[in-house]
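We examine the record.

___
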Amino acid sequence: MVTGGGGGIGRALVRRFVAEGARVVVVADRDIAPARSIAEQVGGFAVEFDAASESGVRGLIDEATEAHGPIDIFLSNAGVPGTMGGPEAPDEAWEQAWNVNVMAHVWAARALLPEMVQRGEGYLLNTASAAGLLTQVSSLVYSVTKHAAVALAEWLAIEYSDAGVRISCICPQTSAS
């Protein structure tokens, strides 16, 4: 399962999972056209989904599990840039970034961890950003939410390390080229 799989890092990871032997790949994205395109290219399945609500995340997981069985790897990759600037950012921008960049990871963990712990295996892979390790001076909203995403993954990795469930967080950085 790859959320935000229709483009960018998500699309690249969908291709990589298939190259590494993934049998079933579910490509989830709020923009269904690119999700369908990459799913068709790799023999996967596209699902339209919005990471901004718990019901959206749970619905995606339920639909995929019902159709394809237990989820072995869940890549919570969907993200939003938030808004530029500092504390003056509107509450709506904070809420959207908080829900997509942080809570979507929480909601996926809530939905998936009980079954993964019971099986003694599973992998939650969360995309944050280098801004979650350092900062992005142009956007307080993005920096704060990505720091929270890193902290969440770290806590989950420590808490579930003895349960057979792996948790990782990738923190890509944009390169100027």
